[in-house]
Design brief:
This protein is an all-beta fold. It has a domain of about 45 residues. The protein is elongated. Strand 2 and strand 3 form a beta hairpin. The protein has no helices and 3 strands. A 3-stranded antiparallel beta sheet has the order 1-2-3, with no helix packed on it.
Length: about 100
């Protein structure tokens, strides 16, 4: 029997085991309503005097998630994201969802 890959245990340990991913609120881009995102970050250079190793070091600074469709970096700490999901947000992804 095939394992259901839509359970949260296969995706994120922050979600209780057995929770179907379609029960979670679908996050959409604030700009275009796209539903696919990439992690993005800035790089900073620490000089040898600023790094713990004594060598120049690149430091990654997370910026958030960039929409794959429009490139907008979204503010997912915004209060509107914490609102309860309407029933239509728990349906399977729409045609704008990026599939790899």
């Amino acid at each position: 029997m095939a394992k259901n890959i839509n359970t949260a245990t296969s995706v994120a340990p922050a979600v209780l085991p057995g929770i179907d991913l379609y029960q979670l609120k679908l996050v959409k881009c604030n700009n275009c309503n796209g539903t696919s995102f990439e992690r993005c970050s800035a790089l900073r250079l620490a000089s040898r005097f600023q790094s713990t190793s004594g060598q120049p070091t690149l430091v990654e600074v997370p910026l958030g998630f960039k929409c794959v469709i429009c490139g907008n970096i979204n503010d997912f700490d915004a209060p509107e994201l914490r609102k309860p999901a309407p029933t239509d947000d728990t349906e399977p992804p729409d045609s704008r969802t990026f599939h790899s």
